[in-house]
Amino acid sequence: MLTCDHPLSPDRYNDRVEDHLRVTEFYHASQIGVVQNQKALVNALIERWHPNTHTFHLPIGECAVTLEDVALILGLPTDGLPVTGMTMSSFSALEAECLLQFGVAPRKSECRGCCIKLTWLRELKENMQLTNELSIQSIGHYSWGHLYRGLCRASRYNCKEIDGPITLLLGWAWIRLPYLSPLPRELHSFPLANRWRNWERGDRKYRYLNLAHFRKAFDELQEGQFLWVAYAVDRVDPNIIPPEIYM
């Protein structure tokens, strides 16, 4: 199998789009490339997650993904308002909210229960113009990168899927447990998730590690193998961290 592996520079945007991304503080996250999932590792982590404490229970103690991890792995703001709101329990409430926010509403066939199908949202995105500067600026006042709800839902015995920022979960595991990570490809890039952009190209064997491998690794975890202080200057070059994230 032949592969063409060119080093690609970060995506460039129209200047106006880049300005909007920086105002909303999504610019750094927009620079994250494709980070291939490792399903066996995710499954092993979910098995160690306790919904009551919102922590992973490991032989060396309890640990969790923190706001510091969100800021450095994804480059997202973490000191704003929480992203939350009411759950729409009826189609009429959902319709009214969409009319208020977008000026248009989906048909019942474009929804499933209280959820809107992504096809409708993608079509809306294609036809929507960014004209409200105030709404765009307000996005930067929120704290993003939520993961706990997805982990709690996935830890149920009858759940077969997980949602939420899986890149954050993988990046956290690979930074905190470096001996369980694939070979990093870009050590001096930010956000830190980009260390493992397209990791499968340089570490093909890692993608085939199974659940039993990671279960055994967690069962035999020793003190010193988990990095409680993962972002010290000897591990992450402070010069690559943008000032607004470093603060």
Automatic annotation (TrEMBL):
It comes from the Eukaryota. InterPro entries: AminoTfrase-like_pln_mobile (IPR019557), MAIN-like (IPR044824). Residues 26-126, 145-233 form the Aminotransferase-like plant mobile domain. GO terms for biological process: meristem maintenance. This is Aminotransferase-like plant mobile domain-containing protein. It comes from Arachis hypogaea (Peanut).
